[in-house]
Amino acid sequence: MSDQQTVTATSPAEQAIADQLRASFEGEVIDRGHPGYDEARTVWNGLIDRRPAVIARCSGTADVVEAVEVARKHRPVVSIRGGGHQVAGSGVCDDGLVIDLSAMKGIHVDPVARTARAQPGVTWGELDRETQLHGLFTPGGEISATGIAGLTLGGGLGFLMRAYGLSCDNLRSVEIVTADGTVHTASREREPDLFWAVRGGGRGVGVVTSFEFDLQPLGPEVTGALVLYPYENAEAVVRAWRDVTLTAPETVTPEILLWSVPADPAIPEELQRAKCVLVGGVYAGPPGAEAAAAVAPLRELAEPLMDLSGTMPYVTLQSANTWRFPDGERYFMKSHFMDELTDEAIRTLVEWDARRPTPESLTVIRTLGGAVGRVGSDESAFAHRSARYNVSIDAGWRDPAMDDEAIGWARSAWDAMKPFSSGGTYVNFAGLGEDASELQGAVYGPHEERLERIRAAYDPEGLFARAAHRP
Predict the structure, then answer these.
(1) DSSP per residue over 227-283, as a string?
(2) Which residues pair with residue 187 across a beta bridge?
(3) Would you call 191 helix, strand, or coil by DSSP?
(4) Same domain, residue pair 213 and 227
(5) In whole angstroms, what is the distance from residue 467 CA to residue 464 CA?
């Protein structure tokens, strides 16, 4: 037997988990000997290379219950994988059981009630495609390949949050399987503690098997600003952008990225992959004069390299940058919430961004406020509603030999920005597993104690405890 075969052999304990699952499972049970094992354990972030004992690819809620009951009996490490990508890769674990929800893709839209119910394997692009048939949407992320589950459970920052709130603010209810194998429906009226926890609590209270969202009228056409400014003016452009954010209407959620010009055939070749400052914003309403006026200040920060602003389908906008984050490349992201952007903070940010190790790496500043801040601070587990900005340091690279350099740059830039932080970190941009210890108190802030009580109430034996405390 080869060394590789020895490493990947299924142990008797692992075989017992797989055999018990296969006895009653409708979905697919994938163990180390399965021909699809390597494909099934692979995730979006190529930096993550974990080898679970068994992957239980669920077909529906009944399969999730079976997987949880098997986990209760055998007590492996458990991770839960939804659809789309998750930077830290915590949807897979070494030598444990992955409850894989990626095949659960059901979507139902009720255009009269303006609600949508979607299963956890759905991505935002898939949900948008269905809701936009009716000129409706619910606030999602900024990349169409992002899964609805991870983004919503972690809060859900997005292009339209100042007008419509976070993704989790638009939840009506969830169906969730808790550690005892019970299926619950949680909402503001039913099991409110559980519902409070899933709105920003990340993970660790159970396996959410469907999300019911409120929908709002928007699209199919929207107006957006998308302007590329010269990188040599980066500090001045960021300061001007900051000043615009202080008076911007809630119908616009300004965003600025220190990045590189896309290698897009529509862009002159001499500009492609050069560093730039990219400014964006989407108007939360119909196209027209009011929309154009609302995004105009974002187009006037300096002399642009290119101005790609205009009207486009909402689904096109949401998928515009997806190709720039391809499957299998390597990613590391960490973030700070900030109450203000001082000139010193901007200077420090630009200085560190100038050291970016690859054209794929970037620094992003997102503007909060508006509808995000109007939700009561104690109404959900998301703990950073008073922050004005989120700053994310995002390393992206291809060559494994660059791992230390790329991650080191992002960690160092994050450390340099820490004096300007309000002390908070967004769980969806929180580093890797080894960053978990420094997240104590930073992700959930004053809500951490209540969240732990709720987790303990629904999972007294700690079945999901490992998952709960990872980024």
Answers:
(1) EEEEGGGHHHHHHHHHHHHTT--TTB--EEEEEE----TTS-TTTTT-EEEEEEEEB
(2) 173
(3) coil
(4) no
(5) 5
Tell which residue, 24, 22, 27, 54, has the closest CA to residue 40: 54
Give Cα 307 to chain centroid, integer Å: 28
CATH code of 174's domain: 3.30.465.10
Q: Encode pLDDT of 372-422 as tens digits.
A: 999 998 999 999 999 999 999 999 999 999 999 999 999 999 999 999 999
- The pTM assigned to this predicted structure is 0.94
Amino acid of residue 294: A
C-alpha 134/C-alpha 114 separation (Å) is: 9
> Which of left, alpha, beta for 445 (phi over 0: left; psi -120 to 50: alpha)?
left
Residue 272 CA to residue 312 CA, distance in Å, equals 23
154's enclosing H/E stretch is helix 148-154
Q: Side-chain half-sphere of 336: how many Cα atoms within 13 Å?
A: 22
Q: Dig out the tokens for 249 from the structure.
A: 């209407």
Cβ burial 283-311 (10 Å sphere, 16+ → b, else e): bbbebeeebbebbebbbebbebbbebbee
Q: Domain range holding 199?
A: 107-218+445-468
35 in Cβ contact with 84 (< 8 Å):
no
Record the tokens describing residue 193, joined without a space: 């503690």
Phi, psi (deg, nearest 5) at residue 333? -135, 135
Q: Is 219 left (phi over 0), alpha (psi -120 to 50) or beta?
A: left
Q: Domain of 91: which CATH number?
A: 3.30.43.10
Is 8 within the bounds of a domain?
no
- The Cα diameter of the chain in Å comes to 71
Beta bridge mates, 366: 255, 390
Of 55, 50, 53, nearest in space to 95 by CA: 53
Could you read off the pLDDT of 231-280 as tens digits, one per residue? 999 999 999 999 999 999 999 999 999 999 888 777 788 888 899 999 99
Domain match, 321 and 208 both: no
